[in-house]
């Protein structure tokens, strides 16, 4: 029988929440990704040779199990211009890649995670810079990754955080580009969260099973091997303002979806600038719950519903105060919802791993990490047994 690697369990560790649990809770973690270094730094002729991070790679290693890979994430949401500058031509790609290689050598990192999340368009600036002006990025993106692989060599890890919404995936991740992307990276971290955001017009799960399967299927059909895809988990909560009575039977056909789903939201971003209109919100489990929604969140925790069809936990609060007449729609993973994703997504699709944004965001209880780790441990044990056969 062919050997099969145990499941990857990747945790992003962020500068916003640099909280690391005690060693016993890190047992199943295989990779830690320190987020972020800005992409523009690597376009400079002489970058700061100290390569400052909120936590050094050496210190990170000391806080996790021996053998845990420590990587550095470059980019992040809204960080697009530095990547576009880097990808423009062969010379700029080489300079970027060589600087990244210098950083990896200097810090002792095991590799890098490229968080150019929206090559080809649909990023934060999509209203200011239309997608037509970014179409060239779709073909330049694989070339940038190839330059990185050439500079880093075969022994260092390269991963990429990639979009989860099909309308975003389609811009740069197609059957024409995915094979060449996979030739340079070790794995893709598919962001199967924020699947509902301010660009949507109806309520749905931001990190549900059906949406996750839809995301993964796009990459699989484009040529990405399942064993090199990682399913994303969100260690944070999202909520959306919904006009009062938007979820009445008149607006949601009876029997089409459970009550609270597929309800019209009204505009959540400025149609001209794309700016957030303040009708969405979110917070990590480490954060204080915003006072205006604290009572509603308590109700969501106690009285939410798990949607078997869509595979997600949600709650519609129609008894709100201080919301200017709006209802509140909540979407987040409970520990139980996390466990349910393994047989229906990870195992069903034969994925190579999982990841979460982010580790410290789940502090101080780390309830979601515990749920994820319990299921990962099963997969890692199965993989180890198969390796011995």
Automatic annotation (TrEMBL):
SUPFAM superfamilies named in the record: (Trans)glycosidases (SSF51445)
PROSITE patterns reported in the protein's UniProt record: GH18_2 (PS51910)
Top-rank taxon: Eukaryota
EC numbers, comma separated: 3.2.1.14
Enzymatic class: hydrolase
Pfam families named in the record: Glyco_hydro_18 (PF00704)
Residue span, GH18 domain: 7-379
InterPro entries: Chitinase_II/V-like_cat, GH, Glyco_hydro18_cat, Glycosyl_Hydrlase_18
Chain coiled-coil ranges: none
Protein name: chitinase
Organism lineage string: Eukaryota, Fungi, Dikarya, Ascomycota, Pezizomycotina
């Amino acid at each position: 029988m062919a050997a099969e690697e145990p499941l990857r369990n990747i945790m992003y560790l962020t500068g916003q929440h640099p909280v690391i649990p005690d060693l016993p809770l890190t047992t199943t973690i295989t990779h830690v990704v320190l987020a972020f270094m800005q992409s523009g730094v690597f376009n400079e002729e002489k970058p700061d040779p100290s390569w400052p991070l909120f936590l050094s790679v050496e210190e990170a290693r000391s806080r996790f199990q021996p053998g845990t890979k420590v990587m550095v994430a470059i980019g992040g949401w809204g960080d697009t211009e530095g990547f576009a500058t880097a990808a423009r031509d062969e010379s700029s790609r080489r300079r970027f890649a060589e600087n990244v290689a210098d950083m990896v050598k200097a810090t002792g990192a095991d590799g890098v995670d490229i968080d150019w999340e929206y090559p080809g368009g649909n990023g934060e600036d999509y209203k200011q810079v239309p997608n037509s002006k970014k179409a060239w990025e779709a073909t330049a993106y694989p070339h940038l990754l190839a330059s990185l692989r050439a500079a880093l060599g075969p022994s260092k890890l390269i991963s990429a955080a990639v979009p989860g919404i099909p309308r975003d995936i389609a811009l740069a991740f197609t059957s024409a580009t995915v094979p060449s992307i996979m030739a340079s990276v070790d794995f893709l971290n598919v962001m199967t969260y924020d699947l509902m955001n301010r660009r949507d017009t109806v309520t749905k799960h931001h990190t549900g099973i059906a949406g996750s399967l839809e995301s993964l299927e796009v990459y699989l059909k484009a040529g990405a091997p399942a064993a090199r895809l990682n399913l994303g988990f969100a260690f944070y909560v999202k909520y959306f303002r919904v006009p009062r009575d938007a979820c009445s039977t008149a607006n949601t056909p009876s029997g089409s979806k459970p009550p609270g789903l597929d309800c019209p939201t009204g505009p959540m971003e400025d149609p001209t600038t794309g700016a957030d209109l303040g009708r969405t919100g979110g917070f990590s489990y480490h954060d204080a719950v915003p006072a205006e929604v604290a009572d509603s969140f308590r109700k969501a925790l106690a009285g939410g519903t798990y949607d078997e069809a869509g595979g997600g936990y949600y709650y519609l609060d129609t008894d709100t105060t201080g919301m200017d007449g709006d209802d509140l729609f909540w979407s987040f993973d409970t520990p139980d919802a996390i466990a349910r994703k393994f047989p229906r997504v990870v195992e069903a699709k034969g994925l190579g791993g999982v990841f979460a944004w982010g580790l410290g965001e789940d502090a101080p209880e780390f309830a979601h990490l515990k749920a994820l780790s319990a299921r990962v441990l099963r997969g890692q044990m199965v993989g180890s047994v198969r390796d011995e056969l």
